[in-house]
Each structure stands twice: as structure tokens, then as C-alpha cells.
Amino acid sequence: MFLRRLAVIVPRSTRFFSSKDSLDLARTIAEFNKEMESVFGDLPPDGLDNSGNRSSLAQESQHNSHLHLISTNDKFTAQELHSISHNLGEKAPGLTHVSSTEKAQMVDVSPKENSSRTAIASCKLLLGKKVFDLVLANQMAKGDVLTVAKIAGINGAKHTSTLIPLCHNIALANVSVDLRLNPEDFSVDIKGEAASTGKTGVEMESMTAVSITGLTVYDMCKAASKDIQITDIRLERKTGGKSGYWCREE
Fold first, then answer.
1. Which CATH number fits domain 115-247: 3.30.70.640, 2.30.130.40, 3.40.50.10610, 3.40.190.10?
2. Residue 219 designated active-site
3. Dihedral of CA 166/205/158/145: which sign?
4. What gap in Å lies between CA 14 and CA 6, rounded to an integer?
5. I need a labelling partner for 216 at 20 to 30 A (CA). Which of 31, 80, 166, 187 fits?
């Protein structure tokens, strides 16, 4: 197409070498340039090659800037985490189940003195009205929900060291589990207590007791509803040991 248009503008090559004024050549070139611009548009001032190079350089520069920003952020985050770790080391007790080489470990309690220790934990199950009425009337297909769950909770406390790998296998003096139906929100309130005389606490035993109790209630009732929620598993109070008495503030 361009050759045909050039032929129209310049019908014979002899035109460039005619005896006419040299302005004919300038007019011809100007017309040809206009034709090219009408098809391709205006060219960049520095030409196509330089434009491509500049575009590549700009993209590379932007990419390098992005990498530099990521690197800077990573360094800042690492420094910030180091500072936080350092501050925690000065102001807060360390994690006893993490060794100096940052490996998991069982705490050596042999240097500790024996003391009387107790712990109370709690848990809540939201049953919903349908399941609550069935449990209250003892009409669940699997039987007496509250009694079975209570026995399961006591048994769970005695197996805490098997379930929680870094817990000590301690001799429990007592484990009790209490379940109360709450008609205000169609729930079951669970309280578990553990007691021992030894070198380590029984907080985990009390919380394991209420957790297993709650799971057992769910298992006994899941045929009637899958919407049961186990919530608020927490330590309420503990006594004994180096830290002494502690109670949750309401």
C-alpha cells in the first residue's frame, strides 16, 4: 500500500533529478511523511529503538525498586521482631517448654518442692432448645448424657499426659466434674476441678476434664443437632506452686 501511495506522489524517479527547483523534492518528502503519519501516527522524538529501550529500562528500574522495597521491609520486620523478642526476654518470663536452642522440651521439675495444688476450669456448651429439652428429659438415643459426659471428663483428666505430650504424668488426688443445665440460654455449664500434691500444677488436668466432658456431650447429642457449640474453655482458679494463688478477674 505504501509503495502504491509513493508511486502516486512520485510517479517517476526522474522527478528527483529534474531541472526544476529543489523545492519539489522537499514537498514530495513532506507529503510522504504526512502519509506515513496518517497511518502510524507521530513517531517518538528519539525513534522507535530508543523508545523500546527506555520502556525496558523503566520496567527494569521499577522492578528493581520493588525488590529493594521488599528487601528493606524484610530487614525492618526482622529488626522489629528481634527488638520485640529482646524486650520480652527482659520483661516477661520465658517459655519453659522451649530450650535455649529453641527446641521443645519437657520441663525438669526435680528441683521443685512438693506442694498442695488445685485448679478449677470451666466450659460452656450451647445446645439449642431442641437438644436442651431432650437432655433435660433424658430422651437422647445414647442414654444419660450428663452422667456419661461426667465420667468421660474424669477419665480424660487422668490421661492428660497422654493427650498433651509435654505434660507430666502426675498422681491426681482428686478429679471432680459438675454439669448444670442452664435454661436461660439452653446451655450446659461445666466445671472441672483437679487436685494433687506434687512438683507441678494441675491446670491442664482441670482443663482437659472440661474439654473431654464437652466433647462427650456433643457426641451424645450430635444425632439431634450438629449446631451445638463448645465455648469458653478456660482456667478459673489455681493454687499452690511457685506462683501461688491465681484467680480469673470477671
1. 3.30.70.640
2. yes
3. negative
4. 14
5. 166
Distance CA 129, CA 134 (A): 9
Catalytic residue among 133, 219, 227, 232: 219
Cell of 27: 514537498
- Reading the chain (250 residues) residue by residue, the pLDDT tens digits are 444 444 444 444 444 445 455 567 777 777 777 777 766 666 555 544 454 455 554 555 555 544 444 444 444 455 555 555 555 555 555 666 665 666 777 888 888 889 999 999 999 999 999 999 999 999 999 999 999 999 999 999 999 999 999 999 999 999 999 999 999 999 999 999 999 999 999 999 999 999 999 999 999 999 999 999 999 999 999 999 888 999 999 7
**Does the reported pTM lie above 0.70?**
no
Residues 6+ apart with CB under 8 A from 27: none
33-42 as b/e: b if 16+ CB within 10 A: eebeeeeeee
Residue type, 245: Y
